[in-house]
Design brief:
By secondary structure, the protein is of the alpha/beta class. It has a single domain, classed as NAD(P)-binding Rossmann-like Domain (Rossmann fold, 3-Layer(aba) Sandwich), CATH 3.40.50.720. The chain contains 8 helices and 7 strands. It has a 7-stranded parallel β-sheet, sandwiched between helices. Helix 3 runs parallel beside helix 5. The longest helix has 24 residues.
């Protein structure tokens, strides 16, 4: 078990379809103590999901665009669990109208909201965890992103821009965190049918295209993304930082 005796915080669990839930399962299967965070309205669902998992717990972090909410959540986790070995950032949000309309119609407030929740929150969470001295030696941070940050994906719009900022943040954070031996990486997962994905126009056609064109001719699962996440939390990836690893059955390498 590659995560035996490690404590992993997984932020952004919503339900059994969320990519973060795949990470929870993989981390538990690899021997980690898993500490989940979710919004208040998802709390009962997450409690039900983890009730049969060994060494799993859940805390509320309602709004990552509010520093106090992040601070209170991390403070409670540190108080009850001490230092941790990894943090997963699986948090993103954009207003529905900013996904459904052409990107040029994105409102100023909508743009700021998507960037704040989906990108800046990684910076805030990382900084606060470091300031609270809650990261163990060699700790690893992972964030989820998507190919829409690199190429135009119909319907992804402002979220693609936010994910591009997230990926740039990962690279700059890698430089800062590396001074103390911490690592940070991103996983660019292939499209997965989640609750959030329902906000993307014609999402089903994206799944069909990936299945047709990806070298492995199938879509990725939350379990496969979770396993890659566990690898990045483990000592097996100790020399990897600042990278965006594609877990998408090879779709991102295909040209015309």
């Amino acid at each position: 078990m590659i995560l035996k005796d490690k404590k992993i915080v997984i932020m952004g669990v919503r339900n059994k379809w969320s990519i973060a839930w795949g990470a929870v399962q993989s981390a538990c299967n690899q021997g980690a103590e898993v500490i989940c965070t979710c919004s208040e309205d998802s709390l009962e669902k997450v409690k039900e999901l983890i009730k049969n998992l060994p060494k799993a717990s859940v805390y509320v972090c309602n709004n990552v665009s509010i520093d106090e909410d992040i601070n209170n959540c991390l403070e409670e986790i540190k108080k009850e669990h001490g230092k941790v070995d990894g943090i997963l950032h699986a948090i993103a949000h954009a207003n529905t109208e900013d996904l459904r309309n052409d990107f040029i119609l994105t409102s100023r407030d909508g743009y700021a909201h998507a960037q704040d929740v989906s990108s800046y929150s990684l910076v805030a969470i990382t900084r606060m965890a470091k300031e609270k001295e809650m990261l163990n030696e060699g700790a690893s941070i992972v964030a989820y992103t998507y190919y829409g940050s690199e190429k135009v994906v119909e319907g992804y719009n402002v979220m693609g821009v936010a994910k591009a900022a997230l990926e740039a943040s990962i690279r700059y954070l890698a430089k800062d965190l590396g001074k103390e031996g911490y690592r940070i990486n991103g996983i660019s997962a292939g499209p997965i049918k989640t609750l959030s994905a329902k906000g993307i126009k014609d999402f089903g056609s994206i799944l069909d295209i990936v299945e047709e064109r990806a070298p492995l001719h199938r879509n990725v699962t939350i379990q496969e993304v979770g396993d890659a996440t566990a690898f990045l939390f483990s000592n097996l990836s100790s020399a990897i930082t600042g990278e965006i690893i594609h877990v998408d059955n090879g779709f991102s390498v295909v040209g015309v």
